[in-house]
Amino acid sequence: MLRALIVEDEPLAASRLTRLLQDQQEVPMQVVAQLPSVQDAVAFFREEPNPDIAFFDIQLGDGLSFQIFEQVAVTCPIIFTTAYDAYALRAFKANSIDYLLKPIDNEDLAQALQKFKRLTATALPGQNTTSAPADASLQLLQQALQQLQHPTAPAYKNRFLIKVGEHLRAVPVEEIDFFYSFEKATFLQTEDNRRFAIDYTVEQLEQLVDPKHFFRANRGYLVQMHAIQDIIHYTNSRLKLVLRNHTQEEVLVSRERVAAFRTWLDG
């Protein structure tokens, strides 16, 4: 049974990850602590032996988790759990630093743990990595931090491949009015009122399209600005969107997203 540490400032996300780790069979783990801040993590590493593996969110309430490495020696392997911008994720991937994109699912967790097993195949449970790998990891983390401070423009998709009967068609992003989920499937709707199933979740699509043009109104809808025909005040401080060629369920901007939506509209 390996000892795992979770550094995460969102209680629900921390609880979900703990449950996923306990349920998975790939690498038996015991979560020894859930810590919500850089300060708490630094105190833990100063007072307790390093765990066998740690899961770090990037952006915590009191700073970036990179600051933990600047204050205390962390010699265990790290897997990041993050909803951070795509350019940061590319930095981790290029430097072979694993990450899990929130909301975490079992498949992504299993793949990350498979990599963890490969990297630690020669180590016994309870052993930590040597200082040399830790120094190398810190150097890679510092490179990623530089990209966070001086980001490059991320590349977004220009088109999506869809299947029409026995044919394939590429739909340009500018022709898409919105993406939505329905009965565990995801669809795109075009400006000429056609719907097509696609092999992405709404969460994945949010990372793939330009946020200047698309906004995540709620868990189920990602909408293009030019498809919004009207915006109406709704109950509980929410907003109702009237979308072109959409006459099905109401599309509401969830209350916690209203402020960001207003900023997005204001450009």
UniProtKB/TrEMBL annotation:
Key word DNA-binding present: yes
Parts forming coiled coils: none
GO function terms (MF aspect): DNA binding; phosphorelay response regulator activity
Pfam family membership, one: Response_reg
Keywords: DNA-binding, Phosphoprotein
InterPro entries reported in the protein's UniProt record: CheY-like_superfamily (IPR011006), LytR-like (IPR046947), LytTR_DNA-bd_dom (IPR007492), Sig_transdc_resp-reg_receiver (IPR001789)
Domain Response regulatory, first and last residues per copy: 3-117
HTH LytTR-type domain sequence ranges: 160-267
Residue numbers of 4-aspartylphosphate PTMs: D57
Name used for this protein in its record: DNA-binding LytR/AlgR family response regulator
Organism of origin: Rufibacter quisquiliarum
